[in-house]
Every structure is written in structure tokens, then in C-alpha cells.
Design a protein that fits this description.
This protein is of the alpha/beta class and 299 residues long. The chain has helices at residues 3-16, 19-26, 30-44, 60-86, 100-104, 109-117, 169-175, 224-232, 242-251, 280-298, and strands at residues 49-51, 56-58, 92-98, 121-127, 141-147, 153-160, 163-167, 188-192, 200-204, 210-214, 216-221, 237-241, 255-256, 266-273. The chain has 10 helices and 14 strands. The longest helix is centred in the N-terminal third of the chain and has 27 residues, at 60-86. The relative contact order is 0.15.
């Protein structure tokens, strides 16, 4: 049994957070995976996993080995992809991170359309509204909806994205319409805790600088969909992605305020780590999304 096979088994177990879950995911027996990991530990002369009936965790050596082994396996797979690409054979698994908001919105159809068009590529989609560490957690690519910040990642812009400060007509009738961002500090607001600014909302200032306003209200929730529902119910002002707010704005259930103070520069991006060999499957996936969004925007 070669080291690479044992290495892959160890990575599968770590990423599935257990032998049973990994066995179900990849279609191998729990006993076989346990054998591979035990042989790997014997080969290395180090314990990689702490195993009990109720607990699963990496040892310090296991954590270090997982990080480096994941990089090695990705490089091996990327090199194989590059060779397959030259023969027109693109296949494999893409581990994708995306926000639940993206998948639940109409633009989430892009993922389904890709899967239909590329049946030899398996999209392993992990929906999480937090910003995952692509390298640390072994992701091939992520779709992010945000302002692009400096990082060690490569980013390709897929499409435009803007935010809206929204409230229900009933709330405005009760509390009035803010005329400047600072007014929000004395008004009920609904905070989406997925946002990096949390309860410190940033707006355009009177000059070139931006202004930060600390807000509070009856609900803090890590879901823009829940924040939307709360705003429609009249609980407070909230900041929403345009594609989440659009149906309620069109129906009059929500209205926008302070439109001229909303910061621009956000977008929808595909981001992926710098690698010596960019896997062909990742390039095909990102190219597809770029084309999908361009076609949609032009429709």
C-alpha cells in the first residue's frame, strides 16, 4: 500500500470529522480507512488522531501533517488535471465554499447549471456564511459576496453586487426616515452578524472619508434571510444584499433609505489559492461562472 493512498485516507477522515462519516462519503469501509490511518501512523512513528468512542481530534503532529499532506495531495491532483486537460479529459471533485445566501438566491442556479453541463465533475458544496480559510480547510475555490480585500488569494469578479439599507413603511411611519447615517444610532436596527462590521455600519461620509455608526436593536442574527423577514415585520432597519431585498422592494414591503450614503465597490467573486498548477477543473468552473454571470447580466 503506497503512502499517497494512506495520506488520502487520513485527509478524508479529518475532513469528514470521523471514520464512519468518511466511509459513507467516499464509499469505503470504516475498517479499511482505520487500517490505512494506522499504517500511516506506524510509518511516521507518530500518533495523528486521538480516537475515543465519543471524541475525535487531531494531535499536534496530526494537525501539522494534515496541512502539509493536503497541499501535497492538491498539487498531485492538480498536476494530473493538467495532464488530463491536454487530452480534453476534465473530471474530478471540486470542494467549494459558498454562502447560504448565494445558494438560496436565484444566482445559486449557476451551480446547478454547471453540474448539469459537467457531469464528470463533482461539486462538493459547503454552505457557510463565515469566511473560511481556503488553504487551512482544504477548499479548491470559494464564491464570496463582499468588498474585495487584500489577500493571498486569486480573485475573479463574477458580477456586480450592492447593498441596500431597508425598512418597512410601517417602521418609517413610527420612527421617521433617517436623513443621515448617524440618525440610525437612535433607531432600532437588525444586525446580520455574518457581516464583518457587525453592529458598526459604515457609510459614505460628508467628505471623502467613510463614517461608522454603531447600531443596536431587538434582533441580531447570522442570516440575511432572517434579517429580511424581521425588517418586513417592522422590527428595524437592516442592510441587505440587493438580490435578497429585490422582491420585497418591488412589492412595497420594504423601502430603501440613505441610498446616496451606501458604500460601493462590492461584488461577487470566485477566489482560490495561489498554486503552481491550477487544477483544470477549477479553471473550467470559474470560467463557467464568469460566462454565466456575464450572460445573465446581459439578458
Amino acid at each position: 500500500m503506497d503512502t499517497l493512498t494512506r495520506m488520502r485516507a487520513f485527509i478524508d477522515v479529518v475532513e469528514a470529522e470521523g471514520f464512519s462519516a468518511a466511509a459513507r462519503k467516499i464509499g469505503r469501509s470504516k475498517a479499511l480507512l482505520s487500517k490505512y490511518v494506522r499504517e500511516l501512523e506506524d510509518e511516521l512513528g507518530a500518533l495523528l488522531l486521538n480516537r475515543t468512542t465519543r471524541q475525535f481530534s487531531l494531535t499536534e503532529a496530526g494537525h501539522t501533517y494534515y496541512q502539509r499532506a493536503s497541499e501535497i495531495v492538491r498539487e498531485v491532483d492538480s498536476l494530473a488535471d493538467a495532464v488530463r486537460e491536454s487530452s480534453g479529459d476534465v473530471r474530478g471533485r471540486i470542494k467549494l465554499s459558498a454562502a447560504r445566501t448565494f445558494a438560496d438566491a436565484p444566482i445559486g442556479q449557476s451551480l446547478i447549471d454547471f453540474a448539469k453541463q459537467h457531469p464528470d465533475i463533482v461539486l462538493d458544496i459547503h454552505l457557510d456564511d463565515r469566511f473560511v480559510d481556503l488553504v487551512e480547510e482544504g477548499f479548491d475555490v470559494a464564491v464570496r459576496i463582499s468588498r474585495l480585500e487584500n489577500s493571498s488569494l486569486i480573485a475573479r469578479r463574477l458580477g456586480p453586487f450592492s447593498i441596500r439599507l431597508c425598512a418597512s413603511p410601517e417602521l418609517l411611519a413610527k420612527h421617521g426616515t433617517p436623513t443621515r447615517p448617524q440618525d440610525l444610532s437612535n433607531m432600532p436596527c437588525i444586525v446580520d452578524t455574518n457581516g464583518r462590521s457587525l453592529a458598526n455600519w459604515r457609510f459614505k461620509g460628508d467628505g471623502e472619508d467613510s463614517v461608522s455608526v454603531t447600531v443596536s436593536g431587538p434582533i441580531e442574527v447570522n442570516s440575511p434571510m432572517a434579517a429580511r423577514a424581521a425588517a418586513v415585520s417592522g422590527l428595524g432597519f437592516t442592510i441587505l444584499p440587493d438580490f435578497i431585498a429585490a422582491p420585497d422592494l418591488a412589492a412595497g414591503r420594504l423601502v430603501t433609505v440613505l441610498d446616496d450614503r451606501i458604500l460601493s465597490g462590492s461584488g461577487i467573486f470566485a477566489v482560490y489559492p495561489h498554486r503552481r498548477y491550477l487544477p483544470a477543473k477549477v479553471r473550467v468552473f470559474v470560467d463557467f461562472l464568469v460566462h454565466w454571470f456575464r450572460t445573465r447580466d446581459g439578458a
